[in-house]
Amino acid sequence: MSPILMMKMEMFNLKENAIWIGGLNIDQLPHILILEKVWTHIWSCKTLSKIKSFLWRACAQCLASGEGLLSRHVSVDPSCLRCGVAVETVDHLLLECLFALASWFGSSIAFLVPASRPLKLYEFLSSWDSLFSQEQRKATETLGMCSFLYWFLWIARNDLVFRKKIWTPSEMFQSAQRAFSKFWAASSPHNQSSYEAPTALSPPSSWTRPPIGSVKINCNIALPTDFQVGGLGIIIQDCQGA
User: Fold this and answer.
1) Which of 83, 137, 168, 210 is least surrounded by Cβ atoms within 10 Å, i.e. has the fewest?
2) Model confidence over 168-219: pLDDT tens digits?
3) Is the Cβ–Cβ distance between 74 and 63 less than 8 Å?
4) DSSP result, 184-223
5) Is residue 151 domain-shared with residue 186, that is, in the same domain?
6) Is residue 177 a part of any domain in this protein?
7) What pLDDT does residue 61 have?
8) Which of the two residues, 46 and 199, has the higher pLDDT score?
């Protein structure tokens, strides 16, 4: 058991001493206490130490996002600099913004963030229990790849804020995949990563038909540099191209 959990609460006068995490009262963050498996996934994740620290700070709402700075009484516009519509929370930056959605879907993971309700980072991490119970190695590698995508989403955001450099989603997820592939090869020399980044996004020269009795779905997404409006195209065809 954690030494912190073994402490007797009567040692502290909770009425007189506020407990804060990332500048927020801990009563406002019950998931920080309840979901211990989130921290387990973070600290056991096969990734760089700095990315583990980043994920911990992201879940604890300690990042200097627009919302985070405003909560610390820093006079800033908390709106997302990319979409300009939503407040730049950590979850919006990493999972909800159009740039993040395009990056996750375009990556080799091809993760489609649910649109039914906002997805929280700690919920995403806690949901990995089922995958770990089925295929340990694949889950370990995939969670490591996800950690690099989160990290590069943060890098791309900071480049936009401080250097006015605009990354495209493809540049972001290809950079993340290349960095992860190098890390995975160095840490697992006998195992090649399943998430190798392509050298370039080059579509096939001709359409290949699916097997008889199946359909093939081709899709593409287009986003302007200001990410105000985007487009998604989907084509469904059978083996005869109909």
Assistant:
1) 137
2) 999 999 999 999 999 998 887 666 666 554 433 334 445 667 777 777 777 7
3) no
4) HHHH-TT---S-PPPSS----SS--PPPTT--EEEEEEE-
5) yes
6) yes
7) 83
8) 46
Closest CA to 146 of 172, 177, 190, 118: 177
Which own/partner contact pairs does 199-206 have at CB distance under 8 Å and 24+ positions apart? 201/170, 201/174
Our count of domains for the chain comes to: 2
38 with 50: CB under 8 angstroms? no
Q: Is position 222 within any domain?
A: yes
Q: Take residue 63 and report the two structure tokens written for it.
A: 């990042």
Residue 25: count other Cβ atoms within 10 Å of its Cβ.
Answer: 10
- Helices marked H in 23-135 — which ranges? 30-34, 36-44, 49-59, 66-71, 90-91, 98-106, 121-126, 129-134
* Whether residue 145 sits in one domain with residue 128: yes
Nearest to 36 by CA among 68, 4, 9, 8: 4
The range of the structural domain enclosing residue 226 comes to 203-242
Mean per-residue pLDDT over the chain, rounded: 75
**Is 5 contained in some domain?**
no
Residues 47 and 165 in one domain: yes
Q: Which two tokens stand for residue 159?
A: 């480049």
Same domain, residue pair 223 and 159: no
Would you state the structure tokens that stand for residue 179, as one six-digit string? 């960095």
Q: Which two tokens stand for residue 111?
A: 């993760």
| 7 found inside a domain | no
Same domain as 207, residue 186:
no
182 with 121, same domain?
yes
Contacts for 79 with CB less than 8 Å, ≥ 6 apart? 66, 85, 86, 87, 88
- Are the CB atoms for 43 and 51 separated by under 8 Å? no
